[in-house]
Design goal:
mainly alpha; Four Helix Bundle (Hemerythrin (Met), subunit A)
Amino acid sequence: MILRYGNNDQIFKKIIKLILDDMPSRLKILGENIENNNYAAIKFISHQIKGSAANLSLKQLHRVAHQIELTAFENGSIEFIKNDYNQLIKIWEETEKVLREEIKE
């Protein structure tokens, strides 16, 4: 992962901190829009989450965010989106722990 940032530990840690600060609010907003069946917002926010996950090669998070985005794009089942969202939250909780360990000094 760090190789992506030219082996620069400081840049890598800054990116991690940005994602740690930003992701909880994005997930909250995504959840609110899922509850309101707002497909346009679901597509937009899941796309943002997917991009953030890609920046750190967080493959599971990326995969589920991408699935949510695709389902919303196709105006698919909100129940499928809710299930994927619950999975996304669980993945984030585990990922967050690992990322916090990564920036510990």
